[in-house]
Amino acid sequence: MEVANNVTEFIFLGLSQDPGVQLILFALFLFFYIVIMVGNLLILLTVFSDPRLHTPMYFFLSNLSFVDIAYSSATAPKMIADFVSDKKTISYWGCITQMFTFHFFGCAEIFVLTVMAFDRYAAICHPLRYTTIMSANVCTLLASLSWLGALGHSFVQTLLTFQLPFCHAQVIDHYFCDVHPVLKLACADTTLVNMLVVANSGLISLGCFLILLTSYTVILFSLRKRSAESRRKALSTCGSHLTVVTFFFVPCIFIYLRPSTTFPLDKAVSVFYTTITPMLNPLIYTLRNGDVKNAMRRLWSHKSSLKEKQKR
């Protein structure tokens, strides 16, 4: 059956209706987005240019940086532009595209973070077998499965939402097209779709979060028999991962592991996993990682020496 649809565009309410507050938010989120782009591009450039970082851990870190660039770009440019726009509209197909890309890269981030935890578990708990466990083929397979899983999740999520009819309601009480705010506008019973959304998004977030916590718990127990230096280095690496995981998964679980009810707090909570986490990732992984900092110094000194040679 063809879905009845009288809506050609949607209108966002955004984070605020106050013009003064919107200007402040425009400057703030533009700064956040620039930090996201520069920080993650710098990590990608550093990892690809330094052969010493061609290891499983940094292979997945580069995947994470790419995901963060694409994930934040699914919502941030439109949100920033809307802060200085009189009418915050998005076309029907633009809304579908935004929801698909947002959930595709968001789910990819969930899977990549989970794979990174497995990588740390293998490195710390099975150091002698690490190169065998995390071979190049295994890393490629895990990354491919993460992207394919995210593609399947996003396709199902978007299809479930937009197979419903939309009659006249156009105003989305959010700053981007997400499942729960859009479902509120559907002129049909959404009970079954709501349950499927919880199963699709909520349980993926919760399940991966529990896997992450389990892997890090096992790692912490295994560190009791290690030297103080080994414990310090492992805790530093795992600590940075857990910081990212907490900022990303807890808000996701709060939003998606519940029926289609929206709260005023939802928009503020969404900022954490759409903007704050992609911005913190490069800061956490560079400031708390000696290998990446040293690689960046080598990259900078190499560029400086090239400039000096060109001047001569």
TrEMBL record:
Keyword Transmembrane helix attributed: yes
Cross-referenced PROSITE patterns: G_PROTEIN_RECEP_F1_1, G_PROTEIN_RECEP_F1_2
UniProt keyword annotations, A-Z: Cell membrane, G-protein coupled receptor, Membrane, Olfaction, Receptor, Sensory transduction, Transducer, Transmembrane, Transmembrane helix
GO molecular-function terms, A-Z: G protein-coupled receptor activity; olfactory receptor activity
Topology within the bilayer: Multi-pass membrane protein
Transmembrane region(s): 20-45, 57-76, 96-118, 130-150, 202-223, 235-257, 269-287
Domain of life: Eukaryota
Cell location: Cell membrane
G-protein coupled receptors family 1 profile domain residues: 39-285
Protein's UniProt keywords contain RNA-binding: no
Family: Belongs to the G-protein coupled receptor 1 family.
UniProt-recorded name of the protein: Olfactory receptor
Organism the protein comes from: Ictidomys tridecemlineatus (Thirteen-lined ground squirrel)
The organism's taxonomic lineage, starting at the top: Eukaryota, Metazoa, Chordata, Craniata, Vertebrata
